[in-house]
Write a structure and sequence with these properties.
Neuraminidase, five-stranded mixed beta sheet, mainly beta, 26 strands, 48% strand, 298 residues
């Protein structure tokens, strides 16, 4: 969560091979940095062509590294779009959209500017495509997209998940509950929305009902505790990838109300987000290092 992030001069990608069968990915791990200073990235995402996108909590820019590039450059200018504080970013290849969690700038003693909103930009050109303010404000943290194109966004301050239906003009509250204190990462798996809680380390699930409403909130018992869970993504193999601020990359296999956890990498100095390209996971970390974790044969 951005409120506890330290200044970050470069955003690095920790690389972990996710292949458990066949040949290990032969490509050397990439150290992907942002070609700017004081960016304070909080989230990362990737498109199917291998491009990597970062947001900036301090400058509001969106940065993109083209496939195979070692550096990400400014792609969407904050000054041209009104972005001030970007948390979650999510590439939606099916819709051709980069979804962005936009939030007001400002801190203690500083007047806030901008608004809390879910924003959409063209995934190819970066042109603005939509702006949906959060009802009653809040803190837009991260985004997940359902197979039908519905967008779900976490509101950390409001302890709720907001929803934007395809073609919708306004966001509506999909679920709101006091027990969602510190709601952060979000992912969709097998017709249900999963969210993690940054403070308590808990993982919750709510099924998407046939009429689109939220089912009962269910806590998932995990085989090991989480420490400051943050970015959450669904894998093509039907599992969850999670970056933990406590310094780990974990994989979660859901079996009914239980999550079997496998540690893919640890010892990171902070891990705030994760994205997957092919058989490689890229984890955003706060320190200047890249770690490769081959999993073949485990």
């Amino acid at each position: 969560m951005s409120s506890i992030r330290k200044n970050v001069f470069q955003a690095l990608m920790v690389v972990a091979s996710l292949s458990v069968v066949g040949e290990v990915n032969a490509q050397s791990p990439r150290d992907v940095t942002i070609n700017d200073t004081m960016v304070m990235p909080e989230s990362v995402t990737s498109s199917k062509d291998g491009s990597i996108f970062f947001g900036s909590t301090s400058k509001g820019n969106i940065y993109r590294a083209t496939p195979g590039a070692a550096k990400a450059d400014v792609w969407i200018q904050a000054s041209a779009t009104g972005l001030t504080n970007v948390l979650g970013v999510l590439a939606d290849d099916k819709a051709g959209i980069l979804w962005v969690c936009a939030n007001p700038a400002g801190g203690r003693g500083t007047p806030a500017s901008g608004q809390t909103a879910l924003r959409a930009f063209d995934l190819m050109s970066g042109a603005p495509k939509g702006n949906w303010p959060f009802p009653d404000g809040g803190l837009c943290n991260d985004i997940a997209i359902a197979p039908d194109g519905t967008a779900y966004a976490t509101d950390t301050n409001g302890r709720r998940v907001l929803r934007l239906k395809p073609g919708g003009e306004v966001l509506d509250v999909w679920v709101s509950d006091p027990q969602l204190n510190g709601i952060d990462g979000i992912a969709i798996l097998n017709g249900a929305v999963y969210v993690n809680l940054f403070f308590s380390g808990k993982l919750f699930r709510s099924a998407i009902q046939p009429d689109g409403t939220a089912g009962p909130i269910t806590e998932i018992e995990t085989s090991m505790p989480f420490t400051r869970p943050d970015g959450l993504r669904t894998t093509p193999s039907g599992k969850l990838l999670q970056a933990e601020g406590g310094g780990r990359l974990t994989e979660i296999t859901i079996n009914d109300k239980r999550g079997e956890v496998r540690v893919l990498g640890e010892g990171f100095t902070g891990a705030t987000a994760v994205t997957q390209i092919g058989e490689t996971a890229f984890v955003l970390v706060e320190r200047l290092r890249v770690v490769a974790v081959p999993l073949a044969g485990r």
